[in-house]
């Protein structure tokens, strides 16, 4: 009889027919995590930190932190960046470290640009079986720690201006199966595809509306989508609602402090069968944009 240990591995490693990338409700603020072509598009040295505490009160629930930094080069002709993700689900951890580079061209005489980007890095994946509960104390995996490092590459395109954006990307192109334990074709990395887009609509002199969406697809898995509609007041305060298809709904708030610092919070609650086992998920967000005084820009950056 299989132990709970193996069930834990199956639940967290997944087979090829499961979504595996970390869940993120504030996707519109951290597009570098899934599209390297976003690097350099904010016209600033921009650093973002996000923490997500998913499925509160659910034992072994995902706990994830993101950090990314990016900057434009050569008047936005190029962009460079890096992003780090640390994710824990039960006794499995994954730390991903990737570097990003992009090149872009002006599409018209206004602000529209088309960017193409690539990323390269690695995932460090570990399993700690020192504290798991097992049916058989003589289980050969009990009390052991396994680690492996898997290199990968990503690619994407990103079209953007001051008023809209659209991107297509695959952050992990290489697929890999686990070399740690023999569980058949248990995939550590499955190929994911992301499509994202949004726009900013001026309602009046003090209010703007920003609808956006993120569509996620993995072969042999259902397509899923995140939809967000946020209202900007006085160029300072964002308030919005979000919906994750057949999974969750939530609310978000982000406050811009001058032109360089933004802080935010999201709460999303489940609308599927998990709603009776947990009390929702929390995300906190901090972004810092550094622009030299001589590089004052003529219009705000919404994306």
Short overview:
This protein has 303 residues and is mainly beta. The chain is built from one helix and 17 strands. 3% of the residues lie in helices and 52% in strands.
Give a written overview of the molecule.
With 303 residues, the chain is mainly beta. The protein has one domain (4-291): Porin (Beta Barrel), CATH 2.40.160. The chain is built from one helix and 17 strands. The protein has one helix spanning 4-13; strands spanning 45-53, 63-73, 78-89, 92-106, 113-128, 145-160, 164-170, 176-177, 187-189, 193-199, 201-202, 207-217, 224-233, 237-244, 248-257, 261-270, 281-290. The strands form two sheets. The chain has a 14-stranded antiparallel beta barrel with strand order 1-2-3-4-5-6-7-10-12-13-14-15-16-17. Strand 12 and strand 13 (224-233) form a beta hairpin. It is globular, with a radius of gyration of 20 Å. The chain starts with a helix and ends in a 13-residue tail after the last strand. Mean pLDDT is 85; it is low at 1-19.
